[in-house]
Amino acid sequence: MTSPMLVTGGTGTLGRLVVPRLRDAGREVRVLSRGGHGADAAGEGPELVTGDLATGEGVEAAVDGTETIVHCAGTSKGDDVKARSLVRAAARAGVQHLVYISVIGADRIPQVSGIDRAMFGYFGSKLAAEHVVTDSGLPWTTLRAAQFHDLCLLVARQMTKLPVIPVPAGVRFQPVDVGEVATKLAELALGTPAGLVPDIAGPRVYTVADLLRAYLRATGKRRPMVPVHLPGKGARAVRAGANLAPDRAVGHRTWEDFLADRIPGQA
């Protein structure tokens, strides 16, 4: 029998899609969840273990007996702390493959000032976690992905609650379908350690205004927009396309496709 594969953040946006792909490939899967929720009603889902990467509580038990870890758990800050907690336990358990999901532009968006960190700290947090994985001494694979459609939808919903929408001038995104990222991540986890692999991004690049207009059309709303200039070196890098990967537009599902599926009444 093969050892179980551990998926951290296995009940989150990405992890909950990675898990069934690994199980469909015939692998036993263990899910690390801080809340311990997510099993199906029949009890036929993956093994669930409770643990907290921020404190380290329960992590050693979760890792014990596994050879491959897919690290999907992440937040807006402190990812390096969580990665370090996981790496310590993984090294003691003799894990043979650590797979990490990061973000395109993690190494290209400066974190010089407080403004940079306030607006783009997520990228810095991901890069710090990448370094923990790279320096862990464990065999590893890291995939950098563009922003998921789900995140763009969350932001669009919040921004369009305003009577007038402030739109970051010159900022573009290349959103990717989370299911396509999950498929790629599972494929990497089932393979051999490959280091930093090519990025995965969506098929189209959109300005923030483009994303918002499509959402407003889909929901039948109207809102005026006002361009705003974001200060700082991080924002300058983003305007220059540091968060984009036009040569890695390998995703197939567009923002419009996603909205048509997610918003009732759309063709």
Describe this structure in words.
The structure is a single chain. This protein is of the alpha/beta class and 267 residues long. The protein is built from nine helices and eleven strands. The chain has helices at 15-24, 59-63, 79-93, 114-134, 149-159, 178-189, 208-219, 233-239, 255-262, and strands at 5-8, 29-33, 47-50, 68-71, 97-103, 140-145, 165-168, 172-173, 195-196, 206-207, 225-228. The strands form three sheets. Strands 3-2-1-4-5-6-9 form a seven-stranded parallel β-sheet, sandwiched between helices. A two-stranded parallel sheet has the order 7-11. A two-stranded antiparallel sheet has the order 8-10. The radius of gyration is 19 Å and the shape is globular. The termini are far apart. Mean pLDDT is 94; it is low at 38-42.
Alpha-carbon distance between the two ends: 47 Å
Number of helices: 9
Q: How large, in whole angstroms, is the Cα Rg?
A: 19 Å
Range of helix content: 25-40%
Percent range for β-strand residues: 15-25%
Structural class: alpha/beta
Q: Quick one: overall form?
A: globular
- Give the low-confidence spans: 38-42
Please report the total strand number as a whole number.
11
Biggest sheet strand line-up:
3-2-1-4-5-6-9
Q: Mean pLDDT, rounded to whole units? A: 94
Largest sheet: 7 strands, parallel
Give the SSE string: EHEEHEHEHEHEEHEEHEHH
